[in-house]
Amino acid sequence: MEQNRLKSREEVPEAMKWRLEDIFASNDLWEQEYIHIEKLLDEGEKFEGHLGDSSSVLVSCLKWMDDLSLRLEEVYSYARMRRDEDNRQGNYQAMTDRAGALAVKVSRATAFVVPELLAMPEGKLNEFRAESETLKVYHHALEEILRKKEHILSSNEEKLLAGVGELAEAPSAIFTMANNADLKFPSIEDESGQMVELTKGNFIHYMESYKREVRKEAFETLYKTYGKQRNTWAATLNSSIKSDVFFAKARNYPSAIKASLDDDRVPLKVYDSLIETVHEFLPEMHRYVRLRKKALNLSEIHMYDIYVPMVPETTMKISYEEAKSMVLEGLNPLGADYLKILKEGFENKWVDVCENEGKTSGAYSWGTYQSHPFVLLNHQDTLDSMFTLAHEMGHSLHTYLSNHAQPHLYAGYKIFVAEVASTLNEALVMEHLLAKTKDANLLAYLVNHYLEQFRGTIFRQTMFAEFEKKTHAIVEEGGALTADQFSEIYRDLNATYYGNDMILDPEIALEWSRIPHFYNAFYVYKYATGFSAAIAFARAILKEGQPAVARYLKFLSSGSSDYPIELLRKAGVDMETPQPVREALQVFTELIDRLENLLN
Questions:
Q1: Which site from 17, 38, 103, 209 is most exposed, i.e. has the minimal number of CB atoms within 10 Å?
Q2: In Å, what is the CA distance from 1 to each residue of 126, 193, 218?
């Protein structure tokens, strides 16, 4: 039988591709900017050792740093997104590597600034801030520097750490290349008996198959392929964890997790409280597994039965055009101004839609301050892909609004709040669909999908967060991590989270080997906290209307002009209490009740 294959990049219609020319019209212009940044680096010499001379020197230096950052953002983003179109393209691999090396050079060139500021008598810095109107813009940024005083090293030590930065990126770079460019999966038999190439992009599609043998084969094939390099994956991830621990120690933090959380000024209790609160609700997760087992009429439930919808009579095939319409309808409560920007993104080639050979898997929103946001998708004509579009456009509008309301210095928002806008979009689209759907089977399908969002975002990401905490602690205590140890920890966590009804197939113990977020440690918990905050915002918007929308849009326009916990608190959500997570999980409980009633 003829085998379906991925399209090459050239075969993808132009209308379905993003327009990276909005950053650089050509690679030659990228090269010119690269050279210009290299020349700008030399300007640091006139500032080094002179920041205490006058407020004007300090202002000039800070402007120079901001300009470098803005230009580097353009150079790195363009190269990386070009590479992501097809990771096999050597020229874009090289450009991305060069951009990464340039980032290290920028770090080295600017490494003197923070130590010199911290060495300056506080009275002098306050004097400069009082006499210079321009320095008022830098107030929050300077406060942030002073807050981290005990973790900033000498100028020479900072330069050394900046130089080590490129080496520290190696585990992530190796994983990315192996996972996206080199890893090939065998073909499997699809629902119609046709042989199709399994890819990371279509894996979940086959895990949602109503034919159990299809999802079982997809599951076993994927993990058998990863298992062939299990020791390599383990060595790579272990190296990444060791790097996290090294940098935490170098900066005088008691642990890697505290070093990571301090970047957002998030207390450790927020992380620990998330895990504790989720554990409180694990009996509800186990109840969900039992309901799934019953609804699918299974004598035993396996890990490959987690994604298939519980309502086999209902399928939703959603084209990209239909997905855009559904997202626009669902986000109507956010008002005309929000929808206008959303349409602009759809119409002006912000989005790269289709999966193709060599393309980076998954989805993301990125972009630059001087251009606009961009979205990478691997659209599969499913309900899940429609929600992915809503999710990534949430990120994009957060970026757009912050870029337009804030100076470049504060336009970029912290990861802690990054998942709020994306998840709120998903929640509003889902609430819209639940409200307008009359068909009982379709309604059950949607409730099931919503439950899966809770499972995937709160429970699953918290399980990931717990995995990260456990693995980093082992390294910090002088231990080493092998493939067997990673797998044992991961398997035990799955047992805890899914409960006694779930048959833990041996393959699931290897799932850690394919999770790219583990190379950006202590990131994933923010999905769970962000989801919880988003549910709180969504409920407020649907209940209060315009006042809640106004608070929310102000939050989206705030960038990093304050600490993330404070930005959320100003908008009405206090993440320093367990309440938002608890309230979100109470919604999860209500949804299980609702689905039980629909299925009876």
A1: 38
A2: 75, 9, 19
Q: What is the pLDDT of residues 517-542, one digit of tens each?
A: 999 999 899 999 999 999 989 988 99
Residue 312 has what pLDDT? 67
Residues 6+ apart with CB under 8 A from 91: 27
- 191 in active site: no
Q: What is the CATH number of the domain that holds 155?
A: 1.20.140.70
Listed in sequence order, the DSSP H helices in 263-382 are 268-280, 282-295, 320-330, 336-347
pLDDT confidence band for 1 (50 / 70 / 90): very low
Which DSSP string corresponds to 56-95? Answer: HHHHHHHHHHHHHHHHHHHHHHHHHHHHHH-TT-HHHHHH
Range of the domain at 79: 9-168
**Tens of pLDDT, residues 362-380:** 899 999 999 999 999 999 9
Q: Where are the beta strands (DSSP E) in 178-318?
A: 187-189, 195-197, 301-302
Establish if 577 belongs to a structural domain. no
Burial of residue 182 (CB within 10 Å: 0-12, 13-18, 19+) is exposed
DSSP helix/strand/coil, 215: helix
Residue 246's H or E segment, with its range, is: helix 230-250
Q: Is residue 153 part of a domain?
A: yes
State the Cα–Cα distance between residues 114 and 120, nearest whole angstrom. 10
Q: pLDDT higher for 264 or 284?
A: 284
What CA–CA distance (Å, rounded) separates 544 from 550? 10
Q: Fill in the amino acid letter for 371.
A: S
Q: Are 237 and 518 in contact (CB under 8 A)?
A: yes
Element (H, E) at 568: helix 564-570
Q: Which of 27, 378, 70 is nearest to 199 (CA)?
A: 378
In a domain, 20, yes or no: yes
Name the catalytic one among 392, 419, 426, 452.
392
Kindly state whether residue 37 falls inside one of the protein's structural domains.
yes
pLDDT digits (tens, 9 = 90+) for 183-210: 999 999 999 999 999 998 889 889 989 9
Number of folded domains in the chain?
1
Q: Give the chain's mean pLDDT.
A: 93
